Backbone:
């Protein structure tokens, strides 16, 4: 197996699967562009006995006829001698069995089959799943040296048709790996291999834009600053990552426009919206259709549902968590200006987005935050706190509350700043007010908490002054990045 940057945990797990003494059916899934194909291809370059990828629906090529012809070409590429394409998927997978039956492996080696973007192959009324079930249940699972790896970006399809299948493939998947975006630490490791020199501020800022998606990171030019790279990738006419947005949705969802409307709605507000609010804003009917779309977006790791601290199940909010989608929607309305980022680097619009986006980076690195706080082993829940404004008082919003089973609450303020953050007298009064509001809410709901710890998460830490001593914990950008 070859070495891969990052992915230490996943590589170790796949190596363990490879050493199994039985046939394995491994499903690798995750967001489009997260690096599924690259990971498997790099690990099994020499062991691959058959590799095939479905035709993308973006180019309108995924008809049954085209998919079968494409599968036929893959069979021929790996040595099967046939003159005509298979008539259906039963015949196609029978041909794959013929190909694999003639391949002999040496001791402790496997016959590795990699089928990429399988959801694209399952065209309407094609009988694809029948043929695939025949292949695995009728032949592959009975061998001892088969490693079947299936990938797909349409996570909802993978979940419904493979992992949670209630038909012929029920409980047939032997292993599953959900591939997540790179962490900040893995991005740092990746930058080193590409000779990209970003300081702490720009490493975090780039994560706020690209969300640790390897395919996007690979587009960075090492001889350019981050600002120059962002202009080239997002703000030039027909730039790669401006065009990517529509491709992302078209490759996953049938009704791409409806899903894009929901994501655009959620990009407007840090804490997100309730289902009722989303229905009102998007004009999508409040019934089951919207619920299914929200569930699908959540399964595909673009949004999450959560209950804000202090609220109940009826107050479930939906929040956008995909950094790339957030960035795109925030700046979508800007006409092509090839130097926009460089010219507006300190504008109020960019600073507003940074505050929004850095919060999501912190939520996605909550394990690092807990590690720094020394509470990795303590069970906890993490969410924002919202108190809506009333006639008597202004509303209050706390960026992050960590509710711990050791009877402590961490009241976390999150600030993305170019230098050490200074707590002013006015800001100290605001912190005191938030502390009081949270204390009163805990007492009102009869929650048993001994202490509330004021915690700051900010790029370069806090500047020491008369107001900083009340802050019990400070977490910096380096704490989020370093292993």
Residues:
């Amino acid at each position: 197996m070859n070495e891969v940057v990052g992915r230490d945990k996943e590589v170790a797990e796949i190596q363990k699967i490879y050493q199994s003494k039985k046939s394995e059916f491994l499903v690798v899934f995750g967001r489009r562009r997260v690096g599924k194909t690259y990971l498997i291809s790099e690990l099994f370059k020499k062991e691959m006995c058959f590799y095939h990828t479905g035709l993308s629906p973006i180019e309108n090529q995924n008809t049954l006829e085209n998919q079968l012809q494409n599968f036929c070409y893959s069979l021929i590429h790996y040595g099967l001698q046939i003159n005509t394409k298979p008539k259906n998927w039963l015949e196609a997978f029978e041909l794959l069995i013929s190909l694999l039956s003639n391949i002999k492996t040496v001791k402790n080696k496997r016959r590795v089959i990699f089928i990429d973007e399988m959801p694209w192959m399952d065209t309407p009324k094609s009988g694809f799943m029948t043929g695939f079930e025949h292949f695995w249940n009728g032949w592959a699972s009975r061998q001892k040296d088969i490693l079947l790896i299936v990938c797909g970006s349409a996570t909802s399809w993978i979940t419904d048709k493979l992992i949670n299948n209630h038909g012929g493939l029920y409980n047939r998947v032997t292993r599953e790996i959900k591939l997540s975006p790179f962490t900040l630490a893995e991005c740092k490791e990746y930058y080193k291999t590409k000779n990209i020199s970003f300081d702490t501020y720009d490493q975090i800022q780039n994560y706020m834009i690209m969300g640790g998606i390897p395919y996007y990171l690979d587009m960075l030019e090492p001889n350019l600053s981050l600002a120059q790279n962002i202009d080239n990738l997002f703000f030039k006419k027909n730039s790669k990552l401006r065009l990517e947005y529509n491709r992302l949705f078209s490759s996953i969802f049938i009704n791409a426009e409806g899903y894009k409307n929901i994501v655009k709605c959620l990009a407007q507000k840090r804490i997100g919206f309730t289902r009722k609010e989303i229905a009102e804003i998007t004009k999508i009917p409040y019934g089951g259709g919207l619920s299914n779309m929200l569930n699908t977006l959540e399964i595909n790791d673009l949004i999450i549902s959560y209950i804000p601290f202090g609220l109940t199940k009826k107050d479930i909010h939906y929040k956008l968590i995909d950094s790339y989608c957030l960035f795109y929607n925030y700046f979508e309305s800007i006409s092509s200006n090839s130097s926009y980022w460089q010219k507006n680097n300190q504008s109020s619009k960019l600073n507003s987005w940074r505050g929004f986006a850095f919060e999501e980076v912190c939520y996605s690195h909550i394990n690092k935050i807990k590690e720094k706080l020394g509470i990795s082993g303590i069970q906890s829940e993490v969410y924002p706190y919202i108190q809506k404004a009333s006639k008597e008082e202004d509303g209050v919003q706390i960026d992050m509350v960590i509710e711990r089973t050791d009877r402590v609450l961490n009241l976390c303020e999150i600030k993305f700043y170019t230098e050490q953050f200074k707590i002013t007298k006015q800001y100290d009064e605001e912190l005191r007010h938030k502390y009081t509001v949270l204390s009163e809410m805990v007492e009102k709901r009869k929650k048993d908490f001994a202490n509330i710890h004021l915690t700051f998460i900010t790029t370069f830490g806090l500047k020491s002054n008369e107001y900083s001593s009340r802050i019990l914990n400070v977490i910096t950008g380096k704490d989020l990045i370093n292993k």
